[in-house]
C-alpha cells in the first residue's frame, strides 16, 4: 500500500486532481468541517479536523487499495495551526505520515469558494512557505507540483506511475 498526500496552500488544485485521477482517494475533511461549522477556527477545531480526516483515512485503508491518495493530512492541518495561531500542537505532528507528499505550489489563479481564507499574494506565499517548512520539519519525502492544470496533472500522473 502506497499513500500519497497532496499538500499545499489553498486553491492549488489538490482536491480537483485527487478527484480526477481515478485512484482511490480520501477527500479533505477540513472543507466539509468548514462548510458545516464556518471558518472562524479555534485550535480545537483544527484538532477535530485532523481527527476527522484520520478517521476517513483509516476507513479507506480498510479496503486495502494498492495506492491511496490523501487530499491533505494532519501535517497540512499543522500548517494551518502555524498560519492561524503561530503554534503547532504536538498531536498534529504525531499522526501517521504518507509515503510521499506532493507539494502543490500556489502558481494557479486564486478561486474563492466560500471556505478559503488566504487569497492575497502575500498570504498565499506565506502559507506555501509554512506548508513546505512543515514537510521539512516532519522529515518526509516530497516533490513539488507546479504549472498550469495540464502540467500538474501530467506531473502527478508521472510521479504516481513511477511508484506503482
Description:
Helix 3 (43-61) packs antiparallel against helix 4 (74-85) and helix 4 crosses helix 6. The termini are close together. The longest helix is centred in the first third of the chain and has 19 residues, at 43-61. Strands 2-3-1-4-5 form a five-stranded parallel sheet. The protein has one domain: Rossmann fold, CATH 3.40.50. With 164 residues, it is α/β, with parallel strands linked by helices. The chain is built from seven helices and five strands.
Helicity level, as a percent range?
A: 40-55%
* Strands ordered across the widest β-sheet: 2-3-1-4-5
What's the end-to-end separation, in Å? 10 Å
The mean pLDDT is: 90
> Any guess at the CATH architecture?
3-Layer(aba) Sandwich
Q: Number of helix segments?
A: 7
Topology diagram in text:
Elements: E1 2-8, H1 14-20, E2 25-26, H2 29-37, H3 43-61, E3 67-71, H4 74-85, H5 90-94, E4 100-104, H6 121-138, E5 142-145, H7 149-163
Parallel strand pairs: 1-3, 1-4, 2-3, 4-5
Helix pairs in contact: 3-4, 4-6
Task: Please summarize what this structure is.
By secondary structure, the chain is of the alpha/beta class. Helices cover 52% and strands 14% of the residues.
